[in-house]
């Protein structure tokens, strides 16, 4: 064990302000990818009509963000990270699900 020489207690009212100042210079992607920050969460997103257009642009944005994170010695938790692809094409697919799957109505 060793003493902590930096930071503030978790839940401190000062934490959000310090975090905002810390990430104020986070690079904005140059490839048309959008960057969204909320509290300690970061999202990169892009809209396109082809996944072939999306992947290289997102990868470049991820590489740029990774360089900045390494510079400031910040880690990404892979267990809390995800990639999601939404497809709004008119072609619909039937996917079989188990009979006991609950039905949610909105």
Provide the descriptors you would attach to this structure in a database record.
2 strands, alpha+beta, 27% helix, extended, two-stranded antiparallel sheet, nucleotidyltransferase, 106 residues
Q: Beta-sheet strand percentage?
A: 5-15%
Largest beta sheet: what is the strand line-up? 1-2
What class do helices, strands and sheet pairing give?
Answer: alpha+beta
Q: Write down the secondary-structure element order.
A: HEEH
Mean pLDDT: 81
Q: How many helix segments?
A: 2
Spans where pLDDT lies below 50 across 5 or more residues: none
Rounded to the nearest angstrom, the distance between the terminal CA atoms is 50 Å
Largest sheet: 2 strands, antiparallel
Write up what this structure looks like.
The chain is an alpha+beta fold and 106 residues long. It has a domain at 40-101. The protein has helices spanning 15-22, 51-71; strands at 34-38, 41-45. It has a two-stranded antiparallel ribbon with strand order 1-2. It starts with 14 loop residues before the first helix and ends in a 35-residue tail after the last helix. This is RNA-directed DNA polymerase from mobile element jockey. It comes from Eumeta variegata (Bagworm moth).
């Amino acid at each position: 064990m060793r003493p902590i020489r930096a930071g503030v207690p978790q839940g401190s009212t000062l934490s959000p302000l310090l975090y905002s100042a810390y990430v104020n210079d986070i690079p904005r992607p140059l490839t048309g990818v959008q960057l969204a920050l909320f509290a300690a969460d970061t999202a990169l997103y892009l809209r396109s009509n082809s996944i072939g257009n999306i992947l290289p642009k997102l990868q470049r944005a991820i590489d740029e963000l990774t360089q900045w994170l390494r510079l400031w010695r910040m880690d990404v938790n892979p267990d809390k990270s995800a990639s999601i692809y939404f497809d709004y094409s008119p072609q619909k697919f039937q996917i079989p699900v188990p009979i006991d799957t609950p039905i949610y109505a909105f």
